[in-house]
Design brief:
It is a single chain. This protein is α/β, with parallel strands linked by helices. It has a single domain, classed as Nucleotidyltransferase, domain 5 (2-Layer Sandwich). The protein contains four helices and five strands; from the N terminus they run βββαβαβαα. It has a five-stranded mixed beta sheet with strand order 3-2-1-4-5, sandwiched between helices. β4, α2 and β5 form a beta-alpha-beta unit. α3 packs across α4. The longest helix is centred in the last third of the chain and has 15 residues.
């Protein structure tokens, strides 16, 4: 008997230059996260969304900020048959910094410097996408309790 894959969404933090993305499972765990440049976003959409239906996300959740309309037009031009939903992304960049430092606490000398005075060593657009996806699932009441399992796989398929 095969195990049913986790239901998940692809959350997108659209920017004018960089786009953050995150696989967010309905149990609020997450899988792959990353940052791609605008010129490469079509490849990311094809890789993540143009898959067999049982492995595909339930929807693409697009933050309604900076470049949302342009990213939506690009996504629609790819003719991928997955719904796009818009989500509020107010303050996600600021909150993404805090989430990054929560997951990657400073070490050495940097432990002495207040987090508010530090900048992450890399873009955190993927963390912003994760927050957008989590907020969407919670607000839409789509969160499912995680089943007890020893399987640590993050992204279906």
């Amino acid at each position: 008997m095969s195990e049913t894959p986790k239901k998940w969404i692809l959350a997108i933090d659209p920017g004018s230059d960089k786009i953050g993305y995150a696989v967010v499972n309905y149990d609020l765990s997450h899988g792959e996260m990353g940052v791609v440049y605008l010129s490469e976003v079509h490849k990311m959409f094809k890789r993540m969304c143009n898959v067999p239906p049982e492995s595909a996300p339930q929807a693409v959740i697009l933050g309604n900020g900076t470049a949302a309309a342009a990213i939506c037009r690009l996504y629609n031009s790819l003719e991928i048959d997955l719904p796009v939903r818009f989500a509020e992304e107010k303050n996600t960049t600021y909150k993404a910094r805090a989430r990054y430092f929560n997951d990657n606490p400073p070490t050495g000398f940097w432990r002495l410097v207040p987090i508010g005075l530090q900048m992450p060593p890399r873009p955190v657009d993927d963390y912003a996408a994760l927050l957008i996806g989590e907020k969407y699932l919670v607000e839409q009441k789509l969160v499912e309790l995680a089943a007890k399992t020893d399987d640590k796989s993050e992204k279906p398929g």
